[in-house]
Automatic annotation (TrEMBL):
<dbReference type="InterPro" id="IPR013785">
    <property type="entry name" value="Aldolase_TIM"/>
</dbReference>
<dbReference type="Pfam" id="PF03060">
    <property type="entry name" value="NMO"/>
</dbReference>
<dbReference type="InterPro" id="IPR004136">
    <property type="entry name" value="NMO"/>
</dbReference>
<protein>
    <submittedName>
        <fullName>Uncharacterized protein</fullName>
    </submittedName>
</protein>
<dbReference type="GO" id="GO:0018580">
    <property type="term" value="F:nitronate monooxygenase activity"/>
</dbReference>
<keyword id="KW-0285">Flavoprotein</keyword>
<keyword id="KW-0560">Oxidoreductase</keyword>
<keyword id="KW-0288">FMN</keyword>
Amino acid sequence: MQVPKLTIGQFTFDKPIVQGAMGVRISSYPLPPMVANLGGWGMITTIGLGGDEAVHRDYPRISNEALVAEIERCCQLSTKPMAVNVMGALSNVNDLIDTAVRSGIKIVVYGAGIPLDLPKLVPDLSVNLVPIVSSARLVRIILSRWAKKYQRLPAAFVLEGPLAGGHLGFNQYELDHPEIFNLKNILAEVLAVVRPYEQMFGQKIPVIVAGGILIADVPYWLSLGAAAVQLGTLFVMTDECPAAPEFKQAYLEAKPEDVHIIHSPVGLLGRVIHSPFLDKVAAGQVKIECPYHCITSCEIKTARFCIARALYNAKLGLLDDGLIFAGANVHLMDRIIPVSQLMAEIIEGIEASPLSLPS
């Protein structure tokens, strides 16, 4: 198979490889610029960059300052285009988007929410807007709204399937019926919805697939019409990922039965690796504190733990008090390698594949 390039608006990436944005700080510096320098699409996360310095009263200010610092650090290591990823459920999402754009970011990826009026917030046409979606229905809603109200289309979609790690865009029924709700089926539906809009506007809308994808899977997804693959779990298992050694060790030791679906305080299901922290939560031994109120959908009064704090603890390696997000295939992780080796192996697999790109 020929290795396709990925075009997002005015930018072309030599490799069809996207590094997923993983909070809290799991995919922060130096991971995004290293991916970018190797021809992939590096993505800067905005989630939890303020850390312990932020408290409720100054959370927006510290979050903005931390994002500016993160962008500056990444841009010092790479001059290649990188994206900033935001969660629509964040209480300060609009501030973060504005900060990213003012800092020179030209690709904004928007997940955990339906960005019906994102073009109004970012009217600059040189900034490429990329929603994260989980269904053809959501793609249709976004395309229809943007086309009618703003005469504008997304620069791409990231289609996240039910095998992804972290917060999921699927309910329990959908997760329990993978024969219906699987990435292959959803991708075919999304591509069918996208085509008429591509023809109407004379603009390609790349669809990037994500969720449980392994190195050997990449040619298959490209042959089905995906423009690229987004990887999260695989990038955690790289030398450049700044997660603590204990976090990565949990990936190495994970067995299939260690992977669980939990009800997150933010109102979504999430895929995690079992840790002592989950036992403490189940026993009611975790004291809930809300230092930020960072997620608008978080039910503070009924939440059994602060997810921002739990994710930050995990990043630091404090697994007794930490929540470990991971994809469904984390039990297949058996090594930690440099980003350069991971990306080289992906490209070698594409080139050696007997499959072909769709015409």
